[in-house]
Amino acid sequence: MVSAGGTLGLSELAARSGLPLPTIHRLVRTMVNRGYLRQEPSRRYALGPRLIPLGDAAGRMLGTWARPHLDALVQQVGETANLAMLEGDSVVYVAQVPSPHSMRMFTEVGRRVLPHCTGVGKALLSTLPADEIRQIVRRTGMPAQTEKTITTPDDLLTELGRIRERGYAIDDGEQEMGVRCVAVPVGDSPLPVAISVSGPSGRLTTERVADVGRLLLRSADELAVALRAESPA
């Protein structure tokens, strides 16, 4: 399914596997019931949430599932929307929908960054206990990417407390000068993931941050509900 672009119909599965269509139908129904496949509104089938811990290819499918939510954020905000997940001590970008503006933020899918200096990273760290956060930054260090980067564990923990209170993280030029990012964690997801909106500080102004944060929180709730609905009981 991954090599086919993420989804296949029953007849396509039968043709690719060489199995009779009735056999494919029974197998697919069983795999849907167990969470290894899911049926989309188009009646095509995609990898299900039970497969996410089993490999990188399945993990990338999370980006496919999140894309409608990222698309909606781009339409609402007009800036680039991202999905990222915490993998080990780093954050990896899983999916991105670019802004329609010619001047826009671009982060290559698959890129890994340290969590202390990015919006998605701080959003994800805010879901962890303090001891675990200290262990992560002790292993990674907290190098300054710009003059605004938080570089001490105590300052980071203070900032994470603010993030928990307001519900969203802000990267105000901490990873790259002139860039602002707003991010939120996605609760109850099969993987520790966060979504964000990023853009030039001149367009994604401080006056817009609270509204963007509310949109992200709503989108994260919707994505979490969708992922829980896909997961077997």
UniProtKB/TrEMBL annotation:
Residues annotated as domain IclR-ED: 50-229
One Pfam family named in its UniProt record: IclR_C
Keywords: DNA-binding, Transcription, Transcription regulation
GO MF terms held by the record: DNA binding; DNA-binding transcription factor activity
Membrane-traversing stretches: none
GO biological process: negative regulation of DNA-templated transcription
UniProt keyword Transcription, yes or no: yes
InterPro entries: GAF-like_dom_sf, HTH_MetabolicPath_Reg, Tscrpt_reg_IclR_C, Tscrpt_reg_IclR_N, WH-like_DNA-bd_sf, WH_DNA-bd_sf
Keyword DNA-binding: yes
HTH iclR-type domain residues: 1-49
Entries under PANTHER family matching the protein: HELIX-TURN-HELIX TRANSCRIPTIONAL REGULATOR, ICLR FAMILY, HTH-TYPE TRANSCRIPTIONAL REPRESSOR ALLR
Protein name as it appears in the record: IclR family transcriptional regulator
Source organism per UniProt: Pseudonocardia bannensis
